[in-house]
Amino acid sequence: MTDRRIPLALDRVRLTYPDGDRRLTALDDVGLRVAAGELVAVAGPSGSGKSSLLAVAATLLRPDAGTVRLAGQDVGVLRAAARTALRRRAVGIVFQQPNLLPSLTSVEQLLVTAHLRGGRRALRRATERRRAEELLESVGLDASRRRRRPHRLSGGERQRVNIARALFGTPQVLLVDEPTSALDHERGARVAELLREVTRTHGTATVLVTHDLGVLGRADRVLHMTDGRLAE
Ligand SMILES: Nc1ncnc2c1ncn2[C@@H]1O[C@H](COP(=O)(O)OP(=O)(O)OP(=O)(O)O)[C@@H](O)[C@H]1O
């Protein structure tokens, strides 16, 4: 039975990569359930499998074994096109580096996503523009900064645009990779607080990979990844 309040559920997930004539196990029997409105942080040493976990949860990588349920759907039974559609509809991804397009203002960074998701019409719709403005305001970007291109924003502001962009498609699942690594302590703490806030207000099931103790302290649960195994 599908539990709609658990937008992300991984069960007995195993992922390997080719490694010469052997296979390297990146995820070893991983189980994870994240509820709507819950912020789960994943810590662990370099190479322990954290990015692999996010890639599998984002349906970017297919596990060798186990199941991934996203927004109530078993990802494993979907064809590639349906998987991509589900990812676009249900998942927001925040990478370490914001990867904003240099020629676009903050508002336009969000509208480009609408364009990709909803076709050309979405770009013209005044409602989309209004929603972009509101989201940027909600992540703490004032009106003048919403008109700026990324080179005129600080690192913390760029990360805020990145987060607003990930939220633009109203995802049920938010996957975040080291969001504060390029920021100083204070800016990092504010971005962590923001992620906690958006998880609550947007009701996303959020998984956040981080080494940052300040971020770990703001999570509802902290899990540790060691050699591909996930534990409390
Ligand atoms: N495309 C790949 N091909 C082969 N091996 C890979 C590939 N990607 C990752 N690995 C290996 O899988 C293991 C897990 O890697 P992963 O990137 O998930 O770890 P991580 O915890 O995110 O590391 P970091 O904190 O350094 O980003 C590592 O041993 C890594 O070398």
UniProtKB/TrEMBL annotation:
Keyword annotations from UniProtKB, A to Z: ATP-binding, Nucleotide-binding
Signal peptide boundaries: none
Domain ABC transporter: 8-232
Pfam families the record matches: ABC_tran
InterPro entries: AAA+_ATPase (IPR003593), ABC_transporter-like_ATP-bd (IPR003439), ABC_transporter-like_CS (IPR017871), ABC_transpr_LolD-like (IPR015854), P-loop_NTPase (IPR027417)
Gene Ontology, cellular component aspect: plasma membrane
Molecular functions per Gene Ontology: ATP binding; ATP hydrolysis activity; transmembrane transporter activity
Superkingdom, taxonomy of origin: Bacteria
PANTHER family named among the record's database cross-references: ABC TRANSPORTER RELATED (PTHR24220:SF685), IMPORT ATP-BINDING PROTEIN (PTHR24220)
Protein name: ATP-binding cassette domain-containing protein
Species of origin: Streptomyces chumphonensis
